[in-house]
Write a structure and sequence with these properties.
6 helices, 5-stranded parallel sheet, alpha/beta
Length: 164
């Protein structure tokens, strides 16, 4: 029941056009399409937010990998190895964000993939957001961050700075 349609739906509003141009420019600078892995670790089955983010990123020209729900951290590390994304996005609504991200960050570092920025979206209390950042999470997005264009612009900037 989860998934991301293959074809992009292009919006021509000013924000979308500018973001598509920015994605294209950063992709050219990177030498390949800006790549974004969206993952749902743990037993959380609420995929709507992850899918909205994945679809929006794809529609703006990013190369998006999204395999669906309920993956263990080591499965996600395998996905990272296979896709070599510029950014990893985790969607966690189960309340297990501290444990799951800690495990995943550790496994990414052990696999030599710790340089890829990881962002988290979900129901994350402010004090936990700070703890996640101390673990190495680059950004934390909560329901207060509902402007998809702002999130996408932030992800593009993050990939650009990380790979400068």
């Amino acid at each position: 029941p989860t998934g991301v349609p293959a074809e992009a739906r292009l919006s021509n509003d000013a924000g979308s056009v500018a973001l598509r141009e920015r994605v294209a420019a950063v992709s050219a600078k990177l030498g390949r399409p800006l790549s974004f892995l969206v993952a749902k670790p743990g037993l959380d089955g609420h995929s709507n937010g992850a899918e909205q983010i994945a679809v929006r990123a794809r529609d703006l020209g990013m190369q998006v990998a999204y395999e669906g729900i309920r993956f263990a951290p080591d499965d996600i590390v395998g996905q990272v190895r296979a896709t070599r994304p510029h950014i990893i996005g985790l969607s966690i609504l189960s309340g297990s964000h501290n444990e799951l991200t800690g495990t995943l960050i550790g496994q990414l570092r052990e696999a030599g993939l710790g340089d890829i920025p990881v962002v988290v979206g979900g129901i994350v209390p402010p004090e936990d957001a700070e703890a996640l950042k101390r673990q190495g999470i680059a950004r934390v997005y909560t329901p207060k961050d509902f402007d998809l264009n702002a999130i996408m612009a932030d992800l593009v900037d993050l990939a650009d700075r990380q790979n400068a």
